[in-house]
Each structure stands twice: as C-alpha cells, then as structure tokens.
C-alpha cells in the first residue's frame, strides 16, 4: 500500500518537474514547480517528517513561489518560442538517454541498502520531530548552522550589490 | 521536555574563520562611513585582517585539533591550504586597488566579499563533515558569483556572473546529491564516521548508493576545479569577470576545491581507491589535453590563461591520481606556486589594460619589451614558470607531480603530462614573441605602477624564483602537511 502511494506521488513529482522545463509559458512552469514541491512535501509526510513537509509547503510552495510568480508578472515576460538547434537537442537527448540507461543498469547490478540509524518511526513519534531536528541543530550540526548565517549575509550583500540601482 | 546538553565547544580550530568573518563584517559597517574616493583604506584594513588570520592559522601547525564533534579539524593539511587561500586573497586585493578605480567599480563591498569567499575556502579545507564542506563551498560560490558580476556596467561581466551562477548551482546539485547518497549508504555526514563505517563494513564498496554517491561528489568537485569535461564555464567566466577577481578565482577556489576533493576521496572512500584513481586518470588526461590544445588558438589573453588554468588543474590531477604522499605534497606545492605565478601574470595584465578591458589580446603586448623592459621581464618570469621551465617554481612543481605519478606506476600518465607541458610552451612563448620581436604600435604611456601592485609583483616574482631555486623547505612543509 505504502509503496503504491509512493510510486504515484513520485510519478506525479517527476512528471511535473519535466513540465517545469518543457512548458513554454513561464507561469505554467512556475505552477508545475508548485506541484513538484507539494509532491515532495507528501513524500516527507510518508517518511515521518511532518515538520519538513510543513516547511516545504510554507517556504517553497508558499513564499518562494509567490515571489517567482510576482517577478514573472512584473517583468511581463513574453512567451517566445525559443529556437533550438535540432541537432544539438537530438545529440544531447541521445547522450542523456544513454547515460540514464547506463545508470539504471549499474544501479540494478549492485545492492541498494542504506545504513539504518537509531531514528525509527517509534522514536520520532515518542520524542517529536521538531524536537529531534532542534536537538540535532544545536548539537551535531551546530557549526553548519552557524556557517549558514555567514552564507546568508554574503548572499544579501551580493544581492544588494548586483540589484540596487545606485550604490 | 528534556533540556539539550550543548556539547563542549572548542573554538580554537575555527579561530581563523571567526577572525576573518568578523573583519569582513566590520568592513561592511565601516564601508558605510567611508567616502567613495578613499575606499582604498578598506583594502588596507582587509589586508591587516588577512595577516591576523594567517597568524592564527600558523599557530595550528603541528598538532591536529578537532572540534564540534569532528566536524572540523585544523591539521597541517588544512593549515597549508589556508595559507594558500590567504595569499591568493591578499594578492588579489593588492592588484584590485588600481583596477577598481579605473573601471569605476570602486564599491567597498568588494573586500568583504573576497574575505567571505576566503572564509568559505578555509572551511572547505578544514571541514571533516560533508555539511561543513558543502556550506563552505556555498559561501565561496555565492561570493564568487557576485564578484564575477561585480562590474555591473559591463555586459561581459554580467554574463560571467550569470553563467557562473547557473552552471555553479547546477553542479552544486550534483555534489549535494552525492553527499545525500553517501549519507544514506553510511549513515553519517562526518568523514571520520564514514571512514569508520567503511572499515567495519567492507561490503559497502558494492553498494550502488555508495558508489554513485562517490561519483557525484567527484563530479561536483571536478566542476569547481575546472576539470574537463566540466570546464565549459571557465573561459567565459574568466574573461568576463574583473581581472583581479579572475586572478583570485584561478588560484584560491581551485586550491580549495582540491583540498576538499583530496580529503573526501582519500579519507572517506579508501576502499574504492582503485575505481576513483582510474576515473582521475581519465579526468587528468582530458583536462590537460583539452586545456592546452584549446589554449593554443586563443588570442584573448584572459581566455588563454583560463584554458591554461584548466590545463594546470590537469597537472594537479596527475598528482592526485598517483595518490601517494609525494603526489599530494606535489599538489600542495603546485597550488602554492601556481597562486603566485598566475596572480603575478594577472597583475601585469591589470597594469597593461585600459578602461573597458581593452588590450586584452596577445597583439596588444607587441613592443612591451622595448617600451617597458622591466615589466616585460617580470611577465616573462611568470610565463616561464607557467610553462614549467627551470629555474622557476612551475618546473619544480611539475617535476614532483610527474615523478609521483611514475612512482605509483603511471608511466603513461607522466608521459602525456610532459607532452602536454611541452605543447603549452607554444602559447606562453607566443606572448613573449609579441613582447620582444614585434614592432610596437602603442606607447604604453598609461601604464603606471602603484605601490600595491609593485608589492604584489615583487612578492610573486620573489616567490616564483625562490620556490624554483630552493624548494626544499616548502616542499618539506608540504610533505609534513600530508598526514590526515
């Protein structure tokens, strides 16, 4: 049951992410991206990570997508059929397909097992998902958590430099 | 509600990063109050910060100290690389003071961004956790995207920034996916724990998740080192970015990518060593050959040096393929000497250039030898070193890399490397031919030395020659640095 549900959600996610790249109209692409994010959020729920799912919906499907759609509408991007070299598309597609088959063949040959940690479903239900993330952030991943602040600062300074009309 | 027991925190190993971040933030604050004609003082302040950081880095030599539960480790390897990054940042700041005024991009944010990039690089060198390495890479990359597009009025600079951003974000995806798969296969993001897991579960080498994770991580780092076939971004970005930033990008970030690449591969994937050395063999040959052959036909000197930097990444990959202590020490030595000789060459390009990137072609160097003999001689030293001709640092570096390859039994790899090195002499000598044997059309009157560039050139020439004549001490240090 669970694997069937996973397959359906995963199929929708892959399909909508393909639509993101192939849609000619940027608004359609953006909405397909929302769909992909929702499917990912669903997958997080099935993995017992409700906090991740909520964050995914609020931050990506909510805030970031609103921003993207706003930008598209403000810039008033005209829908232009981009001319593509058919040879290049054909060659790229052929190489891509070849590499995909190679990857699938390789994956089918070896084992695909992960290392199981101490966090199982019972543990997550008992302690709580947010508590576990918080604890990990302030113990094991304290330094990465702090580095993120530098990363964001550099990004903000960069955005101001590149986008501000007069500096 | 249980309380979280915060583990004991030892800040000593990340002291250099803390100092440099604080200086960068201080510069951002000071920048607001500094009038635009005296932004040069910010450069002085950032140099002071870099010197302080270097002092704190050096104190970590000798005794490896880990902190944050093994997320970072300041050992000799990290110290050596961090000093390379600090040198490249300092030299880039020295050559930018004249450039930013000429190109009218004299914004004070340049210096904090260079320092943030350096912080990112230092985290990559001392990171023992895939998350730390990834975040360090991101801090570095975000700063570099902005720096590449820093000349907002120039179309080429905009193109460089955007291209680097799009391709860089794409490659980051590969790297992160590889890290995620490795985490899934081994259950930890800490390199030490991954090594432990691999040692106790040797069968993980047949686990597809683990192997694909290793491959994707290799792809991500190959992009940052500009190894073929992941080099496509390099020429456009190097050509479009402001010249001091190009100099910085070709030296520091490349070394940082090598630092993280080497540590991750050697510590976390020892059981797959035969697989990834085969992979690196192919990458090294491709990178050297593609870089050198395309460089032969370049007229724009920044594009030529971009392809030459791809080729130099290939030489370093030869040492990595050899994967013995001599090879890795060779990479350390080579990255150090490459920093000085390449930034030195770019410093001369900054001097020769006019506003708006004119004089970017080899032809524009015609007659430099007669009109500015000293400058031409200095450029010759750097070009000889890049070509690998004794008695310069480039020769010694290549010698150690190729001899390490022979020691590990990669005779053919060394032969291909030497052939490539011979081919590269053509395009370096071509610049010299233009400088000395072609009649001059320009008077080179606009070429004026500033104290900062003079210091930079002096440092670069001295280091290139000293490392070429008496490489013993530095090489010994590099060998001591290769103990993880």
Automatic annotation (TrEMBL), chain A:
GO cellular component, one term: plasma membrane
Reactions accelerated catalytically: a quinone + NADH + 5 H(+)(in) = a quinol + NAD(+) + 4 H(+)(out)
Enzymatic class: translocase
Topology class, membrane: Multi-pass membrane protein
Function: NDH-1 shuttles electrons from NADH, via FMN and iron-sulfur (Fe-S) centers, to quinones in the respiratory chain. Couples the redox reaction to proton translocation (for every two electrons transferred, four hydrogen ions are translocated across the cytoplasmic membrane), and thus conserves the redox energy in a proton gradient.
Domain of life (superkingdom): Bacteria
Name of the molecule in the record: NADH-quinone oxidoreductase subunit J
Intracellular or extracellular location(s): Cell membrane
Main location group: membrane
Transmembrane stretches, start-end: 6-23, 30-47, 53-75, 87-107, 141-163
A GO molecular function held by the record: quinone binding
Automatic annotation (TrEMBL), chain B:
Pfam families for this protein: Proton_antipo_M
Keyword annotations from UniProtKB, A to Z: Cell membrane, Membrane, NAD, Quinone, Translocase, Transmembrane, Transmembrane helix, Transport, Ubiquinone
Transmembrane annotation, as ranges: 14-34, 41-62, 77-96, 131-150, 162-184, 204-223, 255-273, 279-297, 328-353, 374-397, 409-429, 450-470
Cell compartment(s), UniProt: Cell membrane; Endomembrane system; Membrane
Membrane topology of this protein: Multi-pass membrane protein
Catalytic activities: a quinone + NADH + 5 H(+)(in) = a quinol + NAD(+) + 4 H(+)(out)
EC number: 7.1.1.-
GO CC field: endomembrane system; plasma membrane
Residue intervals of the NADH:quinone oxidoreductase/Mrp antiporter transmembrane domain: 128-421
InterPro entries, A to Z: NADH-Q_OxRdtase_suN/2, ND/Mrp_TM
Family: Belongs to the complex I subunit 2 family.
HAMAP family: NDH1_NuoN_1
Described function: NDH-1 shuttles electrons from NADH, via FMN and iron-sulfur (Fe-S) centers, to quinones in the respiratory chain. The immediate electron acceptor for the enzyme in this species is believed to be ubiquinone. Couples the redox reaction to proton translocation (for every two electrons transferred, four hydrogen ions are translocated across the cytoplasmic membrane), and thus conserves the redox energy in a proton gradient.
UniProt-recorded name of the protein: NADH-quinone oxidoreductase subunit N
